[in-house]
Amino acid sequence: MSNLNQNHCVHHNKELTYFCESCEEPICKLCTTLGPHNYTLHRINSLQEAFKMRVEHIKQEILHNILPKRDEIFAQINRIEYRIQEIKYVKNIIERDCRAEMNGIEDRLNQAESMKQTILQHQISVIQQDLDEMNDLAIQFFNLTKKNDYLEFLFDSQSLLDRIEFLIAKPYNKGLDEIPDDLPRELTDLRLLLGKMEGQQQLLEILNEIIWRMINERKHEEELSQQILKRHSENEIKEWQKLVEFFTEQLKESEMICYFCNEPLDIKTINKTCKKNKDDIPDNCKKNYWIYN
Ligand SMILES: [Zn+2]
Ligand SMILES: [Zn+2]
Ligand SMILES: [Zn+2]
């Protein structure tokens, strides 16, 4: 019943056989003559034609607007996913490096500690012998006196006294041969180095500022007249060049390392393909990038 009604005009209860393009709704034949969609005032179309037009319109929208945008979004998702992998990859390299470094630091600390342990244990074992001899002497003395054998005691008493004299006179090491303060504190040393590095980073920023000013000044050069150039730019550029040379010298002291494998870089290896960075990342990403060390 409702289905039947849906396909029939609400005004005339006739079958919907036309489409009013002006009102964008299906209508019956009577609607076009009796209203409300009079054909002299409204643009009337056949159902089939209205259907075809809309199918074509939507098809064109999908083809020319939705599909390209869908492709863009798809490509963007791929780029994001690739970036996630990149971040993971670089993080793993850094993590591996951290772990190796930490293991090295721990090994060297353990080595230093066991060396100290060995030396102190040896110091104990040397004076432990003296202690043992003193205990032996006391035991022998009590055993001899317990027997009440005068002769035996008198035969041995001189040798007991000799041993006592020897033990009293014998020097022993009263010092402590090791201290804890010189255990290797590599992280502390690294932190100190980092402090120095920050100073160099500041130098780098000053250098960038100078270069930026020089570039701007060159732009000015072109814009300004020769007269202004003479009194304005040349001397300043010379001053800045001197500064750049000075800071470049300073920066040579900072070493550069490979972004991927942390190997030190020089003029020859910088921005070249990293040997250790094999197939995990496509060719265009294989270059080693430098950072200040
Ligand atoms: Zn009608
Ligand atoms: Zn109409
Ligand atoms: Zn490398």
From TrEMBL:
Entry's Gene Ontology BP terms: aggresome assembly; protein autoubiquitination; protein monoubiquitination
Q: Which residues form a coiled coil?
A: none
CDD domains referenced in this protein's UniProt entry, alphabetically: Bbox2
Superkingdom of this protein's organism: Eukaryota
Which UniProt key words apply to this protein? Answer: Metal-binding, Zinc, Zinc-finger
What sequence ranges are listed for the domain B box-type? Answer: 4-47
Record flagged with keyword NAD:
no
Annotated GO molecular function terms are:
tumor necrosis factor receptor binding; ubiquitin protein ligase activity; ubiquitin protein ligase binding; zinc ion binding
Q: How is this protein annotated for GO cellular component? A: aggresome; peroxisomal membrane
The protein's matches in InterPro entries, at most eight in alphabetical order, are given as: TRIM_RBCC_E3_ubiq-ligases, Znf_B-box
What's this protein's name? B box-type domain-containing protein
Q: Which organism is it from?
A: Paramecium primaurelia
